[in-house]
Amino acid sequence: MNPNVDIHVETEIGQLKKLIIHSPDGGIGKIVPAKFKEWLYDDTVHLSEMRREYNQYVKLLLHFTDPEKAAYVMDYEKSTTGMQQPDCYKPDNKAYFNSKTVLDTQFLLSELLNSDSLRQRLISAVCGWEGSSSRTENKLMAMDRSEDLAKALITGIIKEGSEDTGEFIFAPLPNFIFTRDIAITVNDHLLLSNAASPARERESLLMKFIAQYALFKNQPEKLIEITEPSNYFLLSEQEQAMQKTSLEGGDVMMIAPNHLLIGCSERTTPAGINEAIHNIFADATTGIEKISVIKIPQHRAMMHIDTVFTQVRKDTWVLFGAFSEKIMQLDKRRQYSYIKRLHSDRHKETGFKIEILRFQKPLQESYVPFKNYEVSIQPHISGLESLLRDISIHDFGVDPDKVQIIYSGNNTFPYDEREQWTDACNLLALKDGVVVGYDRNERTIGTFKKMGFSVKNAAALNEELGRGLILPDEIENTLILLPSAELSRARGGSHCMSQPLLREKLP
Ligand SMILES: NC(=[NH2+])NCCC[C@H](N)C(=O)O
Question: What secondary structure, in 3-state letters, does 428-483 show?
């Protein structure tokens, strides 16, 4: 792909033009219960069903960004009915849809691996990381097709015959479908994550290669990296745990052209945030002037901030009601029972209260790297709901009376918690007011309807779009529902399954 062409994201809701995804690969079919905790899963997944669900998502993205390729996959599917996973969805197959707007990490990697020097470098880096033997390294080097090699580096399996047979060389990357978590476009820069757990570290390594050698080949200065301080290795184990520098993309939202949100969570540490703020403010060209940091409890149910809220439209948000200070002030009993629940399955202090700090970039002349930036607690921002209102009003010029918050599960226990768990708050905007969610979150869907949104099933809509009965431009104020029985088990929604590279500016 052309290096550094058309990479720009300045909001969460501008019309989506280009993104990186990763279709569920065979590694997901290898998860065993003994590995749930380490591999960040809560269940085994029925892979072929998950793929059927995911393919609706891919089709939808193609309809909105690359209609020719949408037509191609729809025709292909029709001509091959009965195929479990049609070849047009496989990045290593000749029939792959190969779009320039819906890019798969696996396809991007295989293109890079056509270069001998990069092939050598990537294999050494991955094998070094995984502690593999030289025999494994040589086996990988000897692979003919770069498509097979890319797949092996992701799934951890050197295929022999069908997908289910082959040699295991390292652990799979079952969370690679959540491409949001590995990197975030910040205006025309890319912020690379530093994963919190070993299960996701190889993902970061692969993404770094894609960013360095494909997306930003000619502009390495546009990459923002989060690293451990140089004296980290000197610290005791205890100090290292305290000062771990991790930041995952699910905690970062490019909310308005000069405003970035960063969550402090189970996955993103204060040291990671500190590093991000300094690196972003030190670079005069990122365009970021304020960074709001949101501290949420360190809890599996809400590993990133995008599991508790996302933006739907300039004036509309979906939020987990337990984090609305407005509701919690009214409902002290509910707050108490919620805190108790959060604490009961966690030994360490989780810290329930949401805290928000705003960091303001000082004028460039007075900026001394790593020394000064202004921190403020805005008195009118007392929690998440007032932050979201503040963004609609001040960043998007919405009339204060017009801001609306949709609460997951219609803010009624137990649906609020159940639907937050299955990513009712984790929506991807295809454009201002058109978002993608999961069909299982019925109470949340009901609230969308009450608020005046249309609701459409992805499969039906894809058919209508395919037949030209409706055009993407004609779709407004709509929640599009993906089938989600299996997809939701991986514990992420459409927001985390997307890494936007290009969105149009809002009018
Ligand atoms: N941005 C997100 N909410 N990502 C969800 C990631 C889910 C994944 N199983 C994990 O625990 O890492």
Answer: EEEECCEEEEECCCHHHHHHHHHCCCEEEEHHHHHHHHHCCCCCHHHCCCEEEEEC
Confidence of residue 399 (pLDDT cuts 50, 70, 90): very high
Hey, which residues does 8 pair with through a beta bridge? 502
User: What is the atom index within ligand 1 of the atom nearest the CA of 200?
Assistant: 12
Indicate if ligand 1 lies below 6 Å from the C-beta of 40.
yes
Residue 401 binned pLDDT confidence (cut-offs 50, 70, 90): very high
Span from the CA of 449 to the centroid of ligand 1 (angstroms): 27
Going by C-alpha positions, the residue among 222, 273, 215 that lies closest to residue 244 is 273
Cα angle: 174, vertex 176, 181; to 5 degrees: 125
* pLDDT above 90: residue 468: yes
> How buried is residue 419: exposed, middle or buried, by Cβ count under 10 Å (0-12/13-18/19+)?
buried
Residue labelled with tokens 């030209």: 468
| Ligand 1 atom closest to the CA of 42, numbered from 1 | 9
Q: How far is the CA of 177 from the centre of ligand 1 (A)?
A: 9
Closest CA to 71 of 34, 99, 46: 99
Higher per-residue confidence, 471 vs 377: 471
Q: Whose CA is nearest to atom 6 of ligand 1?
A: 492
Q: Which of 476, 495, 499, 479 is nearest to 487 (CA)?
A: 495
180 lines ligand 1 (CB under 6 A): yes
| pLDDT the model gives residue 4 | 45
Strand partners, 174: none
- Is residue 271 within 6 Å of ligand 1 at its C-beta? no
The helix or strand, by DSSP H or E, that contains position 313, with its residue range, turns out to be strand 309-313
- Domains of the chain, with CATH numbers? 16-75+175-342+350-503 (3.75.10.10)
CB within 8 Å of 371: residues ≥ 6 apart? none
Q: Cα separations (Å) of 450 from 385, 404, 410, 422, 447?
A: 20, 12, 10, 21, 5
Q: How far is the CA of 493 from the centre of ligand 1 (A)?
A: 9
Q: What is the phi/psi pair of residue 20, to 5°? A: -110, 135
| Contact between residue 388 and residue 309 where contact means Cβ atoms under 8 Å apart | yes
Antiparallel, parallel or unpaired: β 454-457 and 478-482: parallel
Which ligand 1 atom sits nearest the alpha carbon of residue 180?
A: 1
**pLDDT value of residue 348:** 47
Q: Are residues 152 and 169 in contact, defined by beta-carbon separation less than 8 angstroms?
A: yes
Question: 493's torsion region: left (phi>0), alpha (psi -120 to 50) or beta?
Answer: beta
Q: Are strands 166-168 and 157-159 parallel, antiparallel or unpaired?
A: antiparallel
Ligand 1 near 304 CB (within 6 A): yes
Kindly give, in sequence order, each residue whose CB lies less than 8 Å from that of residue 365, ignoring residues fewer than 6 positions away. none
Query: What pLDDT is recorded for position 465?
Result: 98
Q: How many CB atoms lie within 10 A of CB 24?
A: 24
Amino acid at 129: W
